[in-house]
Specification:
66% of the residues lie in helices and 0% in strands. It is mostly helical and 242 residues long. The chain folds into two domains: 96 residues, no CATH class; 117 residues, no CATH class.
Length: 242
């Protein structure tokens, strides 16, 4: 039986723990740092390895006042934001679904979206592992909702459209976006894919508009599209199509 209270608690705990791990991925992967060496997290300023009490999600940041215990340097607020956002989205998934398989699929979708957003905004890169995990979640969602064929068609359409844009724009759109939309589209049917791309495009325009107005960017300036694709799909997935 679906117990909202139990799964809410599980979602919050898992979200905080996994959010802490996602911080490791977000910091280390773009820099090419091994995930196993060093095994423990470390201060990026003084390189001192952190004790367990320094790694309690959100709580450690608050207790330490947003500073490293060992050198006193400021800790980026992105760490508690990632942890809190993951927990909040995991909790939201509990209320948006009615069975454990859909919940797990949403957890994967939101997790991939958080990782892609943080990395793409910083580096204009979408990591392959985030694309793969999103695709796994999409397959799980498609099976759980009996829409495997439609999801595969959506993935093919999304991949084809974005691949054309990739070449026509002379790689103004990165190939990572092409792969990511194909993975994300597994959560959708063709009707929903149209909404997802529309929402993503509008969100990207709104994001870029202030930079265009202040002339900090021009029409040739590349905008990280991964975060907006994740947003578009996360909304479109709940737009009724039957």
């Amino acid at each position: 039986m679906w117990n909202t209270l139990i799964f809410s608690a599980i979602g919050i705990i898992f979200g905080l723990v996994l959010g802490s791990f996602y911080n490791v991925l977000i910091y280390r992967v773009p820099k090419g740092i091994s995930l196993v060496n060093p095994k423990r997290s470390f201060c990026p300023v003084c390189n001192h390895q952190l004790a367990w009490k320094d790694n309690i999600p959100i709580l450690s940041y608050l207790i330490l006042g947003g500073k490293c215990r060992y050198c006193g340097s400021k800790i980026s607020p992105i760490y508690p934001v990632i942890e809190g956002s993951t927990a909040a989205l995991f909790l939201l998934a509990v209320f948006l679904t009615s069975n454990i398989w859909n919940m797990l699929a949403l957890w994967i979708l939101f997790s991939g979206g958080i990782i892609v957003t943080a990395i793409d905004l910083q580096t204009m890169m979408i990591p392959d592992f985030a694309v793969i995990m999103t695709a796994v979640g999409g397959v799980l969602w498609a099976i759980a909702n009996g829409q495997v064929l439609l999801s595969l068609i959506s993935a093919g359409i999304g991949f084809g459209i974005f691949l054309i844009i990739h070449f026509v724009s002379k790689q103004g759109m990165g190939f990572g976006d092409v792969e990511y939309i194909a993975a994300l589209a597994l959560y959708l049917v063709p009707f929903s894919l149209v909404w997802a791309i529309l929402i993503a495009s509008i969100a990207a325009i709104i994001f870029a508009l202030p930079m265009l107005i202040t002339r900090k960017a021009n029409r040739k300036t590349r905008v990280p599209f991964g975060p907006f694709l994740a947003l578009g799909v996360s909304i479109a997935i709940f737009i009724p199509w039957r």
